[in-house]
Amino acid sequence: MASSIGIQVLVRLKAGVLDVQGKTIQSSLQGAFPDHVIDHVRVGKLIEMEVEASSQEEAIEKARILCEQILVNPVIESFEIKPLL
Amino acid sequence: MKVGVTVFPGSNCDQDVLHAYKNVVGYDAVPLWHAEPDLKDCDLIVVPGGFSYGDYLRTGALARLSPVMSRVKEFADAGGPVLGICNGFQILCEAGLLPGVLLQNVGMRFLSRFVHVRIEQVDTPFTSRYESGEIVTAPIAHFEGNYFADAETLQSLKDNKQVVFYYCSSDGVVDPDCRQTNPNGSLEAIGGVCNRQRNVVGLMPHPERVVEELVGAIGVAQGLKMFRQQVESN
Questions:
Q1: A71/B108 Cβ within 8 A
Q2: Which helix (H) or strand (E) holds B4?
Q3: A18:B106 CB<8 A
Q4: Per-residue b/e over B176-214, b at no fewer than 16 CB within 10 Å?
Q5: Where are the beta strands (DSSP E) in chain A?
Q6: What is the pTM of this model?
Q7: pLDDT in tens, B166-194
Q8: ipTM of the complex in this document
């Protein structure tokens, strides 16, 4: 029986892709907290949704298709799908 | 010659492109509403600038899903000429019609100013009226214009002569590290590319804003040739 299954997608910029937002945040953090050593700040995205499916595996598979088709640009991003508990 | 200009929620350069074609060049030009999968028998398509779908998710990403874009993709795959300007360039990259992607500007600032671009390839439907190496001065207005492609894609772009525009100085010098001449930090100072078949072209600067001498950067309507050549070349 199909039901709504919560899914969480984490989208990250791939290593080597310049993250200007991350750099700017890092620079501001470092300025505000000079005693902390802060490095490699990277900013990603969290997308949550409910997917109608008959099992968690099916929901994850459906979410994977959405990621590959639109939610993620494989040129610059990678993704990770988790069930929302 | 009938030109179609796509209109998405958030497009804001569509009227400028329609004006360039209708009132300056003198072609028939019509808007193509995003929700209608109909190119209205147009011979040439322009995807104009703006902030389609609020730039949500990624710039250009959501426009790609619209009904009109599925027709644009078929049109491009069949060899039809398609030009993407600014957000239109971003949309064509997201739609897989052009290689690469546009990242945020390196300086984390919206850039609204004139730039110089050197025209490298004159065998596309939109650059055939220019001389190879000709320098065009046109405005940019974007937050995400930092062209990026992985090493393999970059190599194939070069091998296939797909880099159509490089940002450059007023005398044509290309220096990717110079923030004056390559202000958004684009990889190798790439300002615009074409697909392998050469019928799809995208660029970040706005040629439609320099089609009349009154508003040209140096009193010359240097963008005009990008819109004017098609009748002869087709």
A1: no
A2: strand B2-7
A3: yes
A4: eeeeebbbbbbbebbbbbbbeebbbbbbbbbbbbbbeee
A5: 3-13, 45-53, 77-83
A6: 0.92
A7: 999 999 999 999 999 999 999 999 999 99
A8: 0.83
